[in-house]
Amino acid sequence: MFGFVAANIKELQPEEKLRYNSVYCGICRQIRARASQSARLTLRFDMAFLSLLLMSLYEPEEHSGTRACHLHPIKPRPWTDNVYIRYAADMNVALAYYKALDDAQDEGSLLGNVLVKALKKHLPAIEAAYPRQCRAMEDCIRELTRLEQENCANPDLPAGCFGQLLGELFVFQEDMWASTLRQMGDALGRYIYLADAAMDFRRDSRKKQYNPYLASGTGENPALWEQYLVLAMGRCTDYYERLPLVQDKGILDNILYSGVWVEYRNRVRSKQDD
Asked: Which sign does the torsion angle of CA 140, 128, 55, 40 carry?
């Protein structure tokens, strides 16, 4: 369900591309340090966006370096580390666990079962550090499962559920920016859920699996889907522009105003060509 919130790499300046990749590598390093080597395979670029957003808002002290790793053993790569990089790493592991648990329970997924076993031992520490966020993940996935089992015909309900989850993840701490971040995350979560549903429409139709567009009876209607997505992203960027962001704003703008659309259209096109 994640993977849509990525940069349009072609439009980034060289220094922005270096910064973006160093944040991604920093999260990857922290996943290895705080969880395991195998857990790094669950990392998505969405977490780089989350950490860049929080870093731009709060401007924490940073550490950086250059190092090769098991995934890139030949050429050393730059990395960045700070409290929000580590937060994104923990949230990535927790999300991967709850998603794997859902896949294992609902679909009997072999990969889901493997990931559950690999990630479960890391959950107690993350839940202790971030009980609100982890509770939101668990509650949301439980509610999503219920809506899917009932073949919910209103796409806004499951999309809103996932939006609520992401809204809680965007709030690192309850402060003066919490409400704006929560609303922004909610809107972006709705976008992600509805974009994912559009991408999977044909597959879900073939496999007779739940899809909110199938359940609503609208059929395959990319123009209508994009209207939903424009509304969700418009709300997301409205809250985004209320935040006093300076650092890395060029990268964040690239992601929200270009990257998410490039990623969505590329994915939908590739699915239609299958």
From this structure: negative
Q: What percentage of the chain reaches a pLDDT higher than 70?
A: 96
pLDDT tens digit string along 210-257?
Answer: 999 999 998 889 899 999 999 999 999 999 999 999 999 999 999 999
How far is Cα 45 from Cα 155, in angstroms, rounded to an integer?
A: 25
CA angle 191, 169, 67 (to 5 degrees): 100
133-172 pLDDT, tens digit per residue, is: 999 999 998 999 899 999 999 999 999 999 999 999 999 9
In this structure, the number of other CB atoms found within 10 A of the CB of residue 224 comes to 14
- Let me know: does 152 contact 215? Beta carbons within 8 Å: yes
Tell me which residue has tokens 């922004």.
184
Contact between residue 148 and residue 200 where contact means Cβ atoms under 8 Å apart: no
Phi-psi region of 258 (alpha: psi -120 to 50; beta: other; left: phi over 0): alpha
Q: Which of 97-111, 174-188, 248-262 is predicted least confidently?
A: 97-111
Query: Measured between alpha carbons, how far is 218 from 206 in angstroms, rounded to an integer?
Result: 16
CB 202 within 8 Å of CB 220: yes
User: In the beta sheet, which residues pair with residue 268?
Assistant: none
Cα gap 193→237, rounded to integer Å:
17
Distance of CA 256 to the CA centre of its chain: 13
In 3D, which of 118, 90, 113 has the Cα closest to residue 100? 113
